[in-house]
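Our preliminary data section would be incomplete without showing what the modeling component actually yields. Below, a chain of 206 amino acids is followed by its predicted structure, encoded as tokens that our downstream tools consume directly.
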Amino acid sequence: MGILDYVEYYLSWLFFNFKGRDAKLFTKGPAFADFPEPTIEVTSPDCGPSGSDMKPEYTQIGKDRFPEFNWSNASADVKEYILICEDPDAPLPTPIYHSLFYAIPPHTTKITAGDIELVAVEGKEERSPRGGFRFIKNRRGKHYVGPKPLLGHGPHRYFYQLVALNEPLDLVELGENVTKEQLAGAIVGKVVGWGIWIGSFERKWE
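Predicted structure:
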């Protein structure tokens, strides 16, 4: 253990009870007033049933692979999807989002690590996910980072939330630098269902 590990562990002890910002998750916003409970089943063949402990391979401690997620089409009304991963147990006022993918095509029924791989797109400076959708950069300026809770802060939960929309988002109006908050406002009146898969991960002092 290095000095930074001791500092991190002390901060974990200091803020140990600063957890559970579930009420501020993306799917608790005004756009979901008509859908207080999930309506789409989301599964992960890589990580097991919802509520499972995530293997180190799918965290920053390991290879930081993006786990595969599957779902069935919610209905013929679906014109687009959003997939966001949030940690409501980080000791901050609002959940941290690890990834936010949007403009996911309506025929999509799974997303894999290959789908989120960034590739060059003709006419664009920045690379885009191979799956043909867009993303909003997280706090680290990346399209995705896996779980890495504070050392000794106890288990953190990671909410992978799938949102179905009844019309495509106006990408021109949103612009290239759209924020999570702007996206949340843009989907009001468009949500026709959502689903969730929750994984857990803990970094213990060993």
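The chain has a mean pLDDT of 92. Residues 3-14 form the longest helix (12 residues). Preliminary results of this kind motivate Aim 1 of the renewal.
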